[in-house]
Amino acid sequence: MTRSSAHRVLPPQEQKPSRGSRRPDRRKKRTTLGSDRVNEKAEKGREIRAGGDGCGSRHRPGRPAVAILTATQTSSIPANPTAPPPPRPTYSISCSAPPLPRDPAVPSNISRTLYLALSSPPTCPSVPDPQPIPPTATNSTCPAYFRFIHEDLHPWRAAGGITRAMLGRARATANFRLVVLRGRAYVERIAPAFQTRDLFTIWGILQLLRRYPGRVPDLELMFDCVDWPVVRADEYQGENATVMPPLFRYCGDDETLDVVFPDWSFWGWPEINIKPWDALQKDLDIGNKRVKWVDREPYAYWKGNPDVATNRQELVQDLHRRISMLLRFKPTKPPEGVEICPESLACQGIGREKKFMEDSMVKSANDAGPCDLPPPFSPEEFKELQQRKEKSMKLVETWEQKASKT
């Protein structure tokens, strides 16, 4: 079975642990981190959308647009604990110059916006490092499906943590390397991704830094923007577990250890005009009122996003926090890395790219802390989950058999 953040989130009772270097007899189907749909027929097949890599030239354009970020907090934290909390920081982007012209030598099937942002002089504003904002409310407990984070990262926890050598092995197929240091993001582009996958994936991470200023820990990761997973669990048993690469991507399955991350289209997919979730949700609400459910054709429509609820953003935040805790080295700025911020991307965007970035931009910081991660599943809980899943799968197979006879 394929798991993809673009496809579905299975209910906890339908999930089971993965094979490989995970704990014995605790198999599960790892799930996605950001999708809303449950497509029962897809449980039996491999649903992987086509992806690919492009390649670009090294032409260095001229001076970039100058961007200005406004991040203000209108009052200091009151000494009186009973006083109302200070207003949350708000953000805006102002570009003082138009985007640079597109270089015709750069292939059109990769993100020229990201190319300009990474190959031009830095445009990120010189502002103090963001400081943590004290939560104004008691942290809630994360939803139960957050507990699968423990399982997804268990192979590296069992190996004693993530070493720089492990991270280096993930470079073989990665499209970019991302480092977060003191709330700032640095990106090294290793290989251009297909279309704007890398652009909007990085954009989504930048929105996380805005939503939780100063609360995303220092971390370093490799990201592969191709759909199909490549880190085979059976290749990293025993002594080979010490070189197991922690590689992020959008999809995974039972035979692989790739760490699943939300699909880039949650923040927009301009090539096929899939809007960011907030705008798409409004369109869906309007469409739902046009035809009654009983009068509809039997077809399913799906879409998902980490912004559909607060706990989706917390899921991404908690995954980053857990990865940071496993690092056995201190993250450092890549020698060829470039600081990336919302300004450097949005001010080079044009057309749908720019509009989708503006529509999905976080306008203010979250005034509450992330939720608290529940403990891992016990062996008994895993056994019950597996039994429920097997029962559900048999039920779906029965439905399919009946449908094929009609």
Overall number of strands? 10
Low-confidence stretches: 4-79, 304-309
Strand content: 5-15%
Number of helices: 10
Mean pLDDT across the residues is 75
Sketch the major β-sheet.
6 strands, mixed
Structural class: alpha+beta
The radius of gyration over CA amounts to 22 Å
Oligomer: single chain
Helix content: 25-40%
Strand numbers in spatial order across the main sheet? 9-7-6-4-5-10
Terminal-residue CA separation? 27 Å
Shape: globular
Series of H and E elements = EEEHHHHEEHEEEEHHEHHH
Q: What number of structural domains do the residues give?
A: 1
Region (Disordered): 1-91
Biased composition (Basic residues): 19-31
Biased composition (Basic and acidic residues): 37-50
Protein name: Glycosyl transferase CAP10 domain-containing protein
What key phrases describe this protein's structure?
six-stranded mixed sheet; two-stranded antiparallel ribbon; 11% strand
Describe this protein's structure.
Residues 4-79 and 304-309 have low confidence and may be disordered. The strands form 3 sheets. A 6-stranded mixed sheet has the order 9-7-6-4-5-10. The chain has a two-stranded antiparallel sheet with strand order 1-8. A two-stranded antiparallel sheet has the order 2-3. It has 406 residues and is of the alpha+beta class. The two termini are 27 Å apart. The chain is globular, with a radius of gyration of 22 Å. It has helices at 112-119, 148-152, 154-158, 164-169, 197-211, 277-288, 310-326, 342-346, 351-360, 379-405, and strands at 2-4, 67-72, 90-95, 176-181, 184-189, 219-223, 247-249, 251-253, 259-260, 338-340. The protein has one domain (2-71, 88-405). It contains 10 helices and 10 strands. This is Glycosyl transferase CAP10 domain-containing protein. Residues 19-31 have a biased composition (Basic residues). Residues 215-396 form the Glycosyl transferase CAP10 domain. Residues 1-91 are annotated as: Disordered. Residues 37-50 have a biased composition (Basic and acidic residues).
